[in-house]
Amino acid sequence: MTTDFAAPFQRPGERLEDLGLDGLYILQDPDAFRFNIDSVLLAWYAAPAVHRKTRTLDIGTGTGVLPLLLYGRTHTRSIDAIEIQAAMADMASRSVAMNHLEDVIRIQEGDIREEPGRALDRGAYDVIVTNPPYMPKGQGEVNPEPALALARHEIACTLDDVAAAAQALLKDRGKLFMVHRAERVVDLCAVLRAHQLEVKRIRAVQPFPDKPANQILLQAAKRGKAGTIVEPPLSIYQAPGVYSDEINAIYGTDGPKPKAFA
Description:
The protein has 262 residues and is α/β, with parallel strands linked by helices. The chain has one domain (15-253): Vaccinia Virus protein VP39 (Rossmann fold, 3-Layer(aba) Sandwich). Helices cover 26% and strands 27% of the residues. Helix 1 (37-46) packs across helix 2 (65-74).
């Protein structure tokens, strides 16, 4: 799909996708990592903490979907985002420009473990969001496509790296929002607490009401007090091929067809 407004920003082979929110669009490469329902759920989960004057940072922004979704939900005025892969950072920057949001969303290519990632404003952010690589290094089959391998495996960014960056960059009592695999919940809580990030809320995400959770949405607070609220689970489907009422509400009135986000 190509439209006249996207032509100056879209490169050959890229797809233009309607985010279905506030008239926003995003560029995607069909052969590289593309956003999925994880990002949609994370933006929805974090949005109540993001206001017009909130300083927000997205660690590992990929193609920039989280900043765009957060802006669409909140109309906040300041979102920084950092991405280690140059091609992804470039695509994200072009999506931001295509939506005329350069004054709100600032995409930066960099590594949070090194400069310029370390040059981000330390202790300055109210909210950090991140959809980090799910698979520990050495576990699972690594995709031969480098962009997909980096997005899915802790090759260039580990959970500890994310937690250390969040500890350094958040204000005291600042909030970290994350989506991750449910099977790593113990790792998540342990690593975050080691970096003075106390888990305050956890919501399990399950494919069907009668199935175990395969993901979690998590909120932690820097130097927060101990104590965690385990929220009611969120079911993606109510029946095969039929989204749950809550998922439809997250997307909008009737929700998209499930196959659109498979």
